[in-house]
Here is the input.
Amino acid sequence: MTSSMWRPAAETMPRAELHALQWRKLAAQLDHVYASSAFYRARMDAAGCRPHEVAGLADYFARFPLLERSELIAAEQTAPPYGSLAAVDPRLAITRHQTSGSSGQPPIRTFDTARDWAWVADMFATGLYALGIRPGDQVAVVFGYGMFIGFWAGHYGLQRIGATPIPTGAFDTEQRIRLLCEEDVSAVLCTPTYALRMAQKARELGVDLATETRVELLVVTGEPHPRRTRDLIETAWGARVGEVAGMTEAGTLLMFECGPGAPGLHVIETDVIEEVLDPDTREPVGYGERGVRVMTTLGRESVTMLRYWTNDFVVRRPHDGCACGRTWDYYEGGLLGRADDVRKIRGCLFTPAMIEDVARSFPEIVEFQTVLDTVGALDTLIITVEPDERTPGDALARRFGAEVKRAVGVTPIVRIGEPGSLPRFEMKAKRFRDVRANGE
Ligand SMILES: [Zn+2]
Here is the structure.
């Protein structure tokens, strides 16, 4: 059993020991940021949460101020790139990353020291090893190798295990497919969207990924995706999908599936403390209840997240609901969408994932985009779908519109896009925009 674990002692640590370890690490982290981060020192002074004033984990959960994304950005903007947040001299950085930034907001920028980066890689190794990657494996790493963190940490996590990352940054989709056909590549790291895009491109090229490549595993991350999307990927590739999840603010992966049939994503609880709170009251919710995850990172000296409000919806389950033997709790079904993507449309709760779920049940739909706009004073979904070249648009638009109405409760306007007209994505698909005057 433990042979499938990268860090067996940590992954099977009894819960009481785990909580004691979390508190020891957190206490050290509080000392460190209070001494070295102007941002955190001011917050902790104001909240009466100086290191000696926080009595333990329960006191921390009850009183330490939540940290919002807007506060992070504001702290960085006081003196770009890293502002008052960093707790070590940025000249000690050996990496730097930033988010793409959206709707006029500045990006979140972050860096790692050499010590941080060793932790970051080990976190990824923990997840990749659980999914079955072993020394000697050739693994295609599919993303742009730019400023976005993407799979940077995955690249180094693979090396840490003893596998070979193949950096396909400068390859286009066709070159990536040729590589998989020609070489003994057993796994691919990519987003769910890009796994589907490669499958589409392979079909155009007359390549059957299931029989003409030796890929057995796709490690996906970066986007919440419905079960249907995963089924489509597994069928097209004739390979298993395993999921990991992290975020730029943490610098690495924080949770992972433990193998085939995993009920969710185990949180690496020795290295990150996760709480789940009600999005409205911000009080803790129990096991099995949907809430927003709030994270505290324990492994980086450069930039630390203390009670960071992630906006990710999750449902937490106790560890023993999974048969793998790990003592780390898991999020059932992974990340379930973002709290800031939820809208109320004519009284119906809406999330963009609902449209994806419907779209993935239409194999003839190649790509889609959803816009929420005001039409004649009514909130209205305008969905553009791009069918494959064989499918006539009119009938498809009618059937698709009816399915969306059934799933969401409101009738959308469905438009048919020309082949190739909608954007394609390598990382972080953006398929939803709220363009109402009071939207976003
Ligand atoms: Zn498990």
